[in-house]
């Protein structure tokens, strides 16, 4: 690849964006690409599973030390040669967490980090609960050409995704990054896929891929590794490789159509009604089956 592919992956806290980002980085490196992952979350744990569970000093940590900063102070090597960077955040109770992203990206440019390592793909793993000034940097400044969001069928994940779409729409006419797809996470039931598919249809977006919840992820992360490293022959690892190939081949860039607050509320209530009806149907089925079994038991005893 001649020019770095800059991809921002957003998602609310706990949705699996760092798991997805690190497994994508691992899968892309398996394809022979030079990958850099930049954690844009004040927890500074985005790259832990690329380094055996070990954390690395963040860019803001290096700046707070007031020492001369070398590239080796802020860029660390992880699994399969993946370049790991953590933007970091302010000391607890002081300053703006989003500011760390702005500062980190500025410093990486000043130090010519991208020219030095020439990555084929740069993945920005960004907290997406809010799209404030700092956290919106990859979108607002056009740092990333493509934006993905990790979301599940849970309402708060969808709410965060819808907010992200508003941010993309806001900056789209000023050179901001455009959207490329939803990575649907924790998709183990058909109804979950139906919910996320409908949300995509309502917001005129696309699904980049479906990722089921898997114990392989849990086992791997308990060892501080990605599934691609810990269980390379597993079905889940191959799924991440397929997602990586799909993202590499995905040239879609567009402005989503987020729902307004009231529209999102009405949409969510509609799905709540559907789920309640399904549960009632299942419960009636169980009661009917229980009655038949009880009747059979009585008949056999007679």
Short description:
This protein is an alpha/beta fold and 302 residues long. It is built from 11 helices and 8 strands. An 8-stranded mixed β-sheet has the order 3-4-2-5-1-6-7-8, sandwiched between helices.
- Give the N-to-C terminal Cα separation: 78 Å
The low-pLDDT segments are none
- Number of folding domains? 2
- Sheet-strand content, in percent, reads 5-15%
What does this structure look like?
With 302 residues, the chain is α/β, with parallel strands linked by helices. It folds into 2 domains: 5-259, 3-Layer(aba) Sandwich (Rossmann fold), CATH 3.40.50; 261-302. Helix content is 46%, strand content 15%. The chain has 11 helices and 8 strands. An 8-stranded mixed β-sheet has the order 3-4-2-5-1-6-7-8, with helices on both faces. Strand 6, helix 6 and strand 7 form a beta-alpha-beta unit. Helix 1 (17-30) crosses helix 10. It is globular. The model has no long low-confidence stretch (mean pLDDT 88).
Brief descriptors of the model:
single chain, 302 residues, alpha/beta, Rossmann fold, eight-stranded mixed sheet, 8 strands
List the helices and strands and how they pair.
Blueprint lengths: L4 E7 L5 H14 L4 E6 L18 H6 L11 E2 L5 E4 L12 H12 L2 H5 L3 E7 L9 H4 L5 E6 L3 H17 L6 E8 L4 H13 L4 E5 L3 H8 L4 H4 L4 H15 L11 H41 L1
Parallel strand pairs: 1-5, 1-6, 2-4, 2-5, 6-7, 7-8
Antiparallel strand pairs: 3-4
Helix pairs in contact: 1-10
């Amino acid at each position: 690849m001649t020019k770095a592919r800059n991809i921002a992956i957003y998602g609310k806290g706990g949705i699996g964006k760092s798991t997805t980002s690190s497994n994508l980085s691992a899968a892309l490196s398996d394809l022979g690409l030079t990958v850099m992952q930049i954690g844009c979350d004040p927890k500074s744990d985005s790259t832990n599973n690329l380094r055996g569970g070990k954390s690395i000093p963040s860019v803001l940590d290096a700046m707070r030390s007031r020492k001369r900063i070398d590239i080796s102070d802020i860029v660390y090597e992880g699994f399969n040669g993946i370049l790991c960077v953590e933007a970091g955040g302010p000391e607890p109770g002081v300053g703006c967490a989003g500011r760390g992203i702005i500062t980190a990206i500025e410093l990486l440019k000043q130090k010519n980090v991208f020219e030095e390592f020439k990555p084929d793909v740069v993945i920005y793993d960004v907290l997406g609960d809010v799209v404030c000034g700092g956290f919106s940097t990859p979108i607002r400044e056009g740092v990333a050409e493509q934006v993905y969001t990790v979301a599940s069928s849970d309402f708060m994940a969808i709410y965060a995704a819808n907010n992200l779409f508003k941010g993309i729409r806001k900056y789209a006419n000023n050179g901001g990054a455009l959207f490329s797809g939803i990575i649907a996470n924790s998709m183990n039931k058909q109804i979950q896929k139906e919910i996320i598919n409908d949300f995509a249809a309502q917001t005129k977006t696309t699904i980049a891929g479906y990722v089921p919840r898997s114990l392989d992820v849990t086992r791997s992360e308990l060892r501080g590794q990605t599934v691609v490293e810990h269980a390379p022959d597993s079905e889940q690892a191959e799924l991440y490789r397929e997602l990586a190939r799909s993202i590499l081949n995905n040239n879609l860039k567009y402005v989503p159509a987020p729902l307004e607050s009231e529209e999102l509320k009405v949409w969510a209530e509609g799905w709540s009604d559907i789920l309640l009806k399904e549960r009632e149907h299942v419960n009636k089925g169980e009661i009917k089956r229980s009655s038949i079994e009880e009747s059979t038991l009585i008949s056999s005893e007679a």
